[in-house]
Amino acid sequence: MSLKKVISSSLLLMFVGLLPAQHVLEKANTFLNSLSDEIKAKTLFTLEDSERFNMNYVPIPREGATFHDFNELQKKAALDLLRASLSEEGFRKSQEIMELEKVLRIIENDDNDKMPDGRPRRDPLNYHFCIFGNPSKDQPWGWRFEGHHLSLNFTSTEGIISSSTPTFFGTNPGIVRSTEYKGKEVLKKEAQLGFSLLHSMTQEQLKTVVFTDVAPHDIITTTKRKVEQLESFGISYPDLSQKQKKIFMEILDLYMNNYEQEFAAGFRDKINKAGIDNLKFAWAGSLQPGKGHYFRIQGPSLLIEYDNTQNDANHVHTVVRDLTNDYGEDVLKVHYEKEHQH
Question: Where does the signal peptide begin and end (predicted)?
């Protein structure tokens, strides 16, 4: 969707009183109001709580209420909040990633593999909701949805979603080889477009694009709260052919299209202002599927990483980081400076 269409859609939504950010606020309060005091105590944190930055994407004990805590009404309210916070495509991916826990439980066939609370380690209900601060149009607040292979972090300031990063999606298996889910590949387009761009390169371009023959074992930024610029590798956008630029933008759009449309439009605008010409595409590892490979798109304010190395290159980790505004830290700083002036 073009930026012009996104703006037109936002104006239409504003006219009918359903601006997406307001929709999220409504869904957050509906969710909180559905909870008992006991569950609410597990869900609510202050905006300043260090837990807000405790990003992780492996099956470990976490803070926050889970679907095990919720009745059917509360489950629906929780999912309504998540759906309102993402695009339909982003929401679909999150649901299908949760479903992969069922696949892992079958193929690993380890009934003794338990979490400290006694529940199965592979558990599609073991995904946690945390809300930081009080959902409000006037004051900043945040929320997180997290579990195995998902870490979705959101911040709202001045009534809009001002940050939706870090955004982590992972899949294991990357391609399901057995069970009733055989053939399922949740992050298929990411893989296809990455290889499509790589395989369009000339031999001379590949010398710039491929920075090592061995892919890193995981995304390089892992769970760091603050991500600095990685070493500058890869080919710059201006050095691509027109066909390559088209594929490059398809990859960028694929990642942006996971976000709620109003936030996505703002994020795209930020990337454009920092300069598309300043973005680079870099690759590491195998030049063919089936062996460990990694790629990234990097610019002044953006980092996208994709890694598929584990489990014989059938286990994907991919993340989007806003190098200036993860967890809304930049917009929160501006907000508090304004408040101090008042």
Answer: 1-21
Of 115, 141, 173, which residue sits at a domain end?
A: 173
> Which residue from 211, 52, 231 is spatially nearest to 145, judged by alpha carbons?
52
Please tell me the total count of domains within the chain: 2
Select from 308, 298, 320 the least CA-distant residue to 152: 320
Q: Read off the pTM.
A: 0.92
Q: Which two tokens stand for residue 54?
A: 């405790």
What are the 10-residue block averages of pLDDT along the chain, 342 residues in total?
38 40 88 98 98 96 97 98 97 98 91 73 95 96 98 94 98 97 98 98 98 98 94 97 98 98 97 98 98 98 98 98 96 78 57
Cβ-count burial 83-117 (b if 16+ within 10 Å, e if not): bbbbbeebbebbebbbebbebbbebeeeeeeeeee
Q: Which helix (H) or strand (E) holds 100?
A: helix 88-108
Q: How far apart are CA 271 and CA 288, in angstroms?
A: 30
